[in-house]
Fold this sequence. Notes:
Structural class: alpha/beta
Largest sheet: 7 strands, parallel
Shape: globular
Distance between the termini: 31 Å
Number of strands: 9
Amino acid sequence: xxxxxxxxxxxxxxxxxxxxxxxxxxxxxxxxxxxxxxxxxxxxxxxxxxxxxxxxxxxxxxxxxxxxxxxxxxxxxxxxxxxxxxxxxxxxxxxxxxxxxxxxxxxxxxxxxxxxxxxxxxxxxxxxxxxxxxxxxxxxxxxxxxxxxxxxxxxxxxxxxxxxxxxxxxxxxxxxxxxxxxxxxxxxxxxxxxxxxxxxxxxxxxxxxxxxxxxx
Length: 216
């Protein structure tokens, strides 16, 4: 598989020149990069401009033609499952299938408090929302029963153009995150890992996958 390089759109760009981020995305496309990445913050983190990734990447989709659009990462518990599924499907449609949905459970207690979601439920909510979203992307209509989401004969307002929905990359290094990647992900999304750590993650994924197959 060829090496694919992307760039982050998170560094500071002028608030009074919102088009700067779109120019940066077009420049990345002209230079031959594979994708651009946008993180998910609701409150000021102090690390740069903190935007909603689905909103910003929708603008990038309209300003580019080839770049893939990576959420890096979208905090799944912040979004009700149907909202997450519909917004991701919408971006998948308007970008002609260029969305890569990187997801994680989040960590910031202030942001969880701000949206009224108990931080202790973030893992369970992520599993619930991903399972419900995948049901909505794959089935019309869809039924789903989860701890936080119940659907009866539900149909999204817009189905994704990518069969089964956009690719899901699941972030996190814990065993729970790796199990989530095996259950719901098209890929594991690792950050800050060196070659030794990647080898260890591959081994853990193989072992956890074998254990789940043995018990499932």
